[in-house]
Amino acid sequence: MGVLFVLAPLAMRWIVHDGKIPMFAALLPVLVVALFLLLADPTFRLRTELARRIGWRNGISILLLLVVAGGGLVAWIESHHPAWLLEFPRNRPDTYTRIMIGYPIFSVMAQELLYRSFFFHRYGMLFGRQVWVAVAVNGLLFGFAHIVMDSTFAVVATVIGGLVLGARYAATRSFWAVFLEHTLWGWLLFTIGIGRYFFTGVSNL
Q1: Which of 16, 44, 88, 182 is the most buried (most CB within 10 A)?
Q2: Using an 8 Å Cβ cutoff, are 109 and 28 in contact?
């Protein structure tokens, strides 16, 4: 756990900042490693993992949280940083389109396979019936992974996001549920201007 969720993020931070490797390119090996570790585990079945559907109740819950919390976030941005809204799609439409397409495939998929599917399959038993402890540890490690952004905001925001996604996965064991929720929130953040924290971690706030 220490190697995968502490040392690996530290190494990725060095690769991205000192090695000048693009984030999406650096995430590709993470996706490969996550898949290898899962497929090498004889007790894990990828087909079973991917066969669990989202379910309409989970779908409604995901959308409701996005509308309520995301709507509040949009309102805050509109009040405090109105210039951020739609700044990315307006000023850099080509890059924005590439991000919208590539983000779920190269970023979300790798993160969810490693931080939800692999984490809970491999380490969930360590926490016994204390599922909330597993969710808390998962959220903290997920936030720590974002030290690559060099932004306190990015780390704190992804700890919160990790808690939501960890709780969702612990309750549903559905990869597609967390994949969808993660993707929707990412799309929203990039669209309303908060994506600036998730490129280089540098902000003018």
Answers
A1: 182
A2: no
